[in-house]
Description:
Helix content is 40%, strand content 18%. It contains 11 helices and 13 strands.
Amino acid sequence: MRTALSAIAVCCIAALVAGCEVQEPLDYAWEPDRPIEIIVPWAAGGATDQVIRLAASEIEQALRTSVVVVNTPGGTGSIGTAEALEADPDGYTWTSGSASALGYYPVLDMLDTSLDDWHLFLAVANVPLISVHPDSEYEDFGCFLEDLAARPGQVSVATAGTASTGHKVIELICQATDNEYNHISYDGGNPAVTSVVAGESSVTPQLASEQADMIRGGRLRPLAAFSHEPLEIEGHGEIPPITEWLPDVHIATDYFGIWTQREVPDEVIETMQEVWDEYIVGSDVLHNYALERGAVVTPYYGEEAHERAWESVKTDAWILYDIGYAEISPEEFGIPRPE
């Protein structure tokens, strides 16, 4: 019996050793030796939180270390961003969100930073939708525009609050059409969307990721995607782009991703770029998320990420200034008005 047990023990140990040998050594310039922290400067469950947790799982798989997502809401995302900006620049602390915020925080006098302070790694672009209750009299987006013109300042539009994506979208629409609307401000995207489902508001221009479930369930009807191209949502189909009605409306893509300080070691950035190429570009979980939630996978980093985010910075900073929410002109921070 003792011999048999010894033989079994030897076999188990051999199997464990063999299992350990299956994993090949990492071939990256940087091999983290402790958990990486990604700060989500918004509450759990929101658009940023959803996609960052998916990206974190891909990074964990690549680097074989824990990636801890920490929600630090407050200050329109500036509190969590400031925490990452002040951390040791060693590659172990990252923050996240919409890249355009890095440019408009100083305009809002919330945080002294800019795109140039960060290495950007973008993951997805979240597309806003202009949607109504399924029983709405608006047959299409054109009908909505006609009603805006016919009833200045009376059509109720629900957003996640001043300076939210939805707020900026409806402002861009009204700037392009010289119309006015009745702004109904909520504390978050989900309450804004729910208000249209409940019939409290007429229209919401919030992110597709916040509307997708309601659209699939037949409780919202999308009129147009705030984009140049049609948007597909799994279980619903294609949604026409707003440019079918407003070909010249200014559209700035809302890129979401992670970033860390410009001063981190080069080997950290080189490693994360390889991770992006090998794991994020072809990520099934991100592509499935995009299809299900109405987003677009945008795995950019380096100069390309900076250039794309810069266009969003210009648009958002000037919209916030033009509507009176930002008192400091973007020009004071070298942010030109978008063409």
